[in-house]
Write a structure and sequence with these properties.
Layout lengths: L1 H24 L10 E5 L3 E4 L6 E10 L7 E7 L4 E5 L9 E6 L2 E6 L8 E8 L9 E3 L3 E5 L2 H95 L1
Parallel strand pairs: 2-10
Antiparallel strand pairs: 1-3, 3-7, 4-5, 4-8, 6-7, 8-9, 8-10
């Protein structure tokens, strides 16, 4: 884009020179001194690398001019020079063709290559008028055809897009599969968890019973020990009394 801006800036500097050349090509005198022409062109036109033919357009309006068709001219401004393509005859009839329909003008360029990238200027002139406004040019259209590097860039972007799409599809499939497994295994997991809780509760109950039994056995053992010691104490008392 910076190169296109530089070309447009350089073109503006030489626009006066082109206007002088236009007056020199179409010099003449006439009575229609009030003739006024306005030419309009699109600023940019980008062509895909696969295209081999392009149509550049411009429109014009004429006030106070004669009814005869105007002469149409096309110039091309390159980086360091300008070329007269059609003034009005084209320098290469096979490559360049001019079409005029009412107030619309077009330049057809065939066998298009990256070497045709330039600023194309459309000119309209009523040669039977001496008015300085009867011969005008547009501001120029910057023509850009993408080269091989853009083709590779498009392929690279396509490859990246394919990878991103595949990754998203993989993540989507993995998510769906995970939800499906959770949905299918959830009853089993809940049942297993319930069984484990029941088993834990049973273990707690069994452990409590064992503890209670151990305590009961210990108490019974203590009672039995105390019961066995009481007769011996009584026998000792009896013997002492007899003495």
């Amino acid at each position: 884009m910076s190169r296109e801006v530089e070309e447009m800036a350089s073109f503006n500097k030489l626009k006066d020179v082109l206007m002088l050349a236009l007056h020199w090509i179409l010099h003449g005198a006439g009575a229609a001194d009030t003739c006024q022409v306005t030419v309009t062109q699109p600023k940019f036109q980008e062509v895909d690398y696969s295209m081999h033919t392009v149509l550049l357009t411009c429109t014009f309006s004429a006030f106070g001019c004669s009814s005869s068709p105007p002469q149409v001219l096309w110039f091309r401004f390159l980086t360091k020079k300008h070329e007269d393509l059609c003034t009005p005859g084209c320098i290469d009839q096979q490559k360049y063709k001019v079409h005029l329909s009412e107030n619309e003008i077009s330049l057809q360029i065939s066998n298009l290559t990256v070497d045709d990238n330039a600023v194309y200027i459309c000119g309209v002139a009523f040669s039977d008028s001496s008015s300085p406004h009867s011969k005008q040019t547009g501001d120029g259209t910057v023509l850009t055809k993408a080269g091989v590097e853009k083709q590779h860039s498009n392929r690279r972007l396509g490859f990246i897009f394919m990878i991103i799409t595949s990754s998203l599809l993989f993540l989507y499939s993995a998510t769906v599969f995970t939800f499906f497994l959770v949905y299918k295994l959830k009853p089993k997991l809940l049942k297993k968890s319930k069984n484990e809780d029941q088993r834990t509760e049973n273990c707690k109950i069994t452990s409590g019973r064992k503890i209670f039994q151990a305590i009961a056995q210990e108490l019974q053992k203590q009672r039995y020990t105390e019961h066995c010691q009481q007769p011996e104490d009584l026998e000792d008392d009896t013997v002492y009394q007899n003495r």
